């Protein structure tokens, strides 16, 4: 039996994640004002029945579409990530359920990661580690990053944080987004993503950080890699599906581009038989570029703040435009 | 027989370096106005006899002291590095020979390298490479660099470039130099190196970039490492002899500090039996942090500019105070 006053909150989390939540003072605060149902994927349909709110803490789970039929009175869905593609299925998109995301939590951390991999390429830090393993003292000349040209594909808050960080470190940046424009405060010039290939030849580094939408899926394909400089490095901190993975592998093999730093993949975990693991000049990390120590607390606190807003009728933060697939810029 | 008008320039270079010089338009320009003697270490004494100028292009060579007796009319010595310790022997210091160095060429490149290794530690990029080699998908949480405290020991132009770069990337910096002060444009606070141990406990990263002098030799010893945070990382882009190597190894073994990125060593090349090669959380590079593509040309051009100044009676750039052991700040 459900209390008249207490809203029902379903929380989708993995078995290994429940402790993050139940141990969190922010969630404990919510438990005093709501009936909270923690559930894994298998129990999601039951938990959604009569639930007012769904908090998708396990943000890589693909369980929501299959359980959606049980969401008989859901009003709001919050996801603990910046990308909302795991919950952007047609029934959700067409419903009246409000969708919010965790925009902002990861921005600066991802920007630091991108600068780190750019410097790792420029200074050949991975080459130094390989030589160190063999106890080989082999002097090399390395690249400057000052003045190098970077194209950041994706002009949301993460892309903007990357632009500010790389520019602060002496690089020259431009953006690519839905709409071409000049005078952007972070990017200066923004090219139209639809005309990406004609702009790619000018850049030393290309960073993918666009949201995954119908327009951006497979944006980085053979034609895009062919348009890049042979000396260019490709960095993906957005979504694996922005890339046609086979085309990327072929571009690396053929020398169409000089290297790639990949934090996201179209299949995660990256399968053990992927050739990417062992390709030279490829840096693999397991979808962690934004995950600084403390990120889980920060995510939970962001949800708790939004939950308080929802309870008190205050406008929610980070409301996603479900037609665009992301939170529009102000 | 030496022409009356043409000064004699001795150039100390390794066998594998002569091509850099003889192929350089800048050196070819000098050859039209001076008698140029390219020599390796074995021929240095002969080359110094009646030479007016010595250009130490092989800046790691220790050959100058042994040949110094032959320098019967030397007036100026230029070294193709920022550190002048290879030519700071007593007979040189006490002579009237003017000493200039290559200050400025490496500053920004070394600053990029330092930021790269800081980010490599914070984002565990070397850990990602180790896991990649094993095809292991293992998520970790990593550190932010924003707000982290860095002490830069050495307030010359390289230290200043490092300070500006790290601050631009969001870190908090302070310096350590001969004289404690506040309000420094690059460092804000500068501590006295003589009181280093009392300041070290406050810092997450400690960067050694001081010139090697009697005062700085062995500055980083067991007491200094004991004073650092157990989570601190030590970065040496100055000189290996700033560090008591055995004490550093012991500090890494015992956990007195959390890691080290080392570009310079008291013996170079680093001997194959050094335990540093295989210690966890130690990044080794072979004295290359400043050596960007094109650095050799830039070094030769700097010397050529100074040579032109010397020929025309214009004040030389980068005159070293031989008592201090470096070019004093303006």
Automatic annotation (TrEMBL), chains A, B:
Highest taxon in the source lineage: Bacteria
Record domain D-isomer specific 2-hydroxyacid dehydrogenase NAD-binding: where: 116-289
UniProt keyword Oxidoreductase, yes or no: yes
InterPro entries referenced in this protein's UniProt entry, alphabetically: D-isomer_2_OHA_DH_cat_dom (IPR006139), D-isomer_DH_CS (IPR029753), D-isomer_DH_NAD-bd (IPR006140), NAD(P)-bd_dom_sf (IPR036291)
CDD domains documented for this protein: 2-Hacid_dh_1 (cd05300)
Keyword Oxidoreductase: yes
Keywords noted in UniProt: NAD, Oxidoreductase
Domain D-isomer specific 2-hydroxyacid dehydrogenase catalytic as annotated: residue spans: 44-318
Assigned protein family: Belongs to the D-isomer specific 2-hydroxyacid dehydrogenase family.
Protein name: Phosphoglycerate dehydrogenase-like enzyme
Record organism: Amycolatopsis viridis
Origin organism lineage: Bacteria, Bacillati, Actinomycetota, Actinomycetes, Pseudonocardiales
